[in-house]
Structure to design on (171 residues):
């Protein structure tokens, strides 16, 4: 797999929101609790391009063979204690090839340079996110805690994972 991770500098606003819409299309169609997510996708896209030296610097676009396949993002503001993995977006046509795991490895490589102590990531306790749950465990993360659905804007339990320091890259 010829994977390339690139900054957003050569991309146009709208690319992040488009990737998120395509990646979550099945969920958005099948569960009304997620209907407001598209507004959040647009807002995040605007922030990435409005603040290229902060928010935008914590995003990479992923290409396979030159084709846009997804992106990864992170939030380093809590370093040195920990950093947070944000979006791990993979387009449906590229799923099942280990790309999500490869993007996590890339984010962890970047965490080592920060340096960040632990790495944290969260996902929802919903059938759509079961592959993500399995992937985080396969990448060496441990379940840290579960936040009740009542605390979630979508009414879905949130599962938080942590990879303790030193943050090692999983092969």
């Amino acid at each position: 797999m010829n994977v390339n991770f690139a900054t957003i500098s050569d991309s146009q606003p709208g690319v992040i929101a488009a990737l998120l819409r395509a990646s979550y299309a099945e969920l958005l169609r099948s569960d009304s609790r997620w209907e407001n997510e598209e507004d959040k996708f647009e807002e995040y896209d605007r922030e990435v391009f409005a603040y290229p030296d902060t928010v935008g610097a914590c995003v990479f676009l992923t290409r396979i063979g030159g084709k846009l396949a997804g992106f990864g993002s992170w939030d380093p503001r809590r370093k040195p204690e920990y950093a947070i993995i944000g979006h791990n977006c993979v387009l449906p046509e590229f799923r099942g090839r280990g790309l999500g795991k490869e993007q996590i490895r890339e984010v962890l490589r970047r965490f080592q340079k920060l340096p960040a102590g632990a790495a944290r990531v969260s996902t929802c306790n919903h059938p759509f996110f079961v592959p993500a749950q399995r992937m985080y465990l396969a990448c060496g993360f441990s379940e840290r805690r579960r936040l009740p659905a009542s605390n979630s804007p979508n009414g879905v339990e949130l599962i938080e994972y942590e990879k303790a320091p030193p943050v090692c890259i999983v092969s």
The chain has one domain: 3-163. DSSP finds five helices and seven strands in the chain. The chain has a mean pLDDT of 92.
